[in-house]
What does this fold into?
Amino acid sequence: MPLLDDKVVLVNGGSQGVGAATARAAARDGAVVAVSGRRPEPGEALVAELTAAGGEALFVRADLADAAQATSCVTRVVEAYGRIDCLVNSAGLTSRGTLLDTTPELFDRHIAINLRAPFFAMQAAVRDMVGRGAPGTVVNIITSSAHGGQPFLAPYVAAKAGLAGLTRNAAHAHRHDRVRINGLNIGWTATEGEDATQRAFHGAGDDWREQAAARLPMGRLGLPDEIADFVVFLLSDRSGVVTGSVIDWDQNVLGALD
It folds into this structure.
């Protein structure tokens, strides 16, 4: 049986990268899938793709920097399908900033997208689950940089480390409600967003992926489809009673040295 048969899944930040891969994987495993994003073109194209493949899908246009819109994404899904069973918070801002050059505006934007939006999306989703007395699952896409990261990721790390703590806190608070909340600390991944970031902030050329892969232990970057399969497993009943886990999905081992 498909892992997410008849589940209603919302993927915030689901129009590209890991989010889009997760939407496709969830649809293949039987879910009704809603995706949110700022830009309608990729979001609507993805929904058309999922629908053409025989699935049921919905695009919700939203700027997740606005807490009210993060909440309304969930509200829109509940209005359309009567419930929400699974939530994936995949949207992320990776703009660079160090402790010394980060402005209050940049810091606030990282907090808004990387921490506040997941907080209020979870609030709305868990409220629906608890209100119906039904189990549910949430997966937050975090980052291995939440453990410390590079100096140029200061506001990003601050927000994502907060999301890791929030994941554990919310999971503890709602374990008796049968709402399971887990997170993935993903490592360096080959996405459209990462390509744009490397070019915009690091002057990367067309061969940056090959250069990056040569420095990594397993000789390649992570792939969105691989992460998506792991997310679907965590959303599904096959992951059992696991909750409050923030899993390092990476090829480097935290704390280990050569």
Remarks:
- Residues 189 and 221 are 5 Å apart (CA to CA).
- The beta strands are 8-12, 32-37, 57-61, 86-89, 136-141, 179-186, 246-249.
- DSSP finds eight helices and seven strands in the chain.
